[in-house]
Amino acid sequence: MFLDSVVFLILIHGHYCFVVQDLKDHFLPENEFKRKIPETPTHALREIFPKTSLELFKKAYFVESTTFSGSTYLLSKDSLFFYPSFGQAMCGLVGGYLVEVNTIQELNFIKHFLFEKASRFGIVMAGGTDEDHEGLWVNRHSLTKVDSLWDAGQPDDFQGAQDCQVFYKPYNWNLDDNSCVFNSGEVAFLCEVKD
Ligand SMILES: [Ca+2]
Ligand SMILES: [Ca+2]
């Protein structure tokens, strides 16, 4: 029987974590990611992952914001972004999800955090996507409609190839639609964790 998924043991800076990756996704070419990006099951891992290890994991891989309206935000460190379902899995391990921006106040809080902490990045991945239906923007975690807090002129689906919601530094960290898959260390992702 062919295995569908594998559990990776990641060891960085003396800390370790487990991440389940779907083998089918792992070996799909880039254009295949656009068609099918399933969520990775993390709830089971959270149950077997000791709380103290989770705290170490959080400190090792993320920079944490202060609290805003019952949420804290975790910015991935270093070159940790590969594609959205990986980010979503990492967010799931710390009890959150790729950020869903619902109000202008929340957007402003996040932008302030990114101006302070994300200077080494050019793009920070958020939770909205229109991969399933072009122009129909949905939050990956809650499956709710993405609130229209985009930068002026966005989303523009530039060159027909922008299906993921990001914070974009050239737009002063306002929201843009951009690519979903990057091979660049200048891309991070942002988790939202509810109290
Ligand atoms: Ca699009
Ligand atoms: Ca765009």
Automatic annotation (TrEMBL):
* Secretion signal, residue range per the UniProt entry: 1-17
Keyword terms: Signal
User: Does the keyword Signal feature in the UniProt annotation?
Assistant: yes
Q: Does the keyword Glycosyltransferase apply?
A: no
| InterPro entries, sorted | C-type_lectin-like, C-type_lectin-like/link_sf, CTDL_fold
Q: Name one Pfam family in it.
A: Lectin_C
Q: Which residues cross the membrane?
A: none
Q: Where is the C-type lectin domain?
A: 68-174
What protein does this entry describe? C-type lectin domain family 10 member A
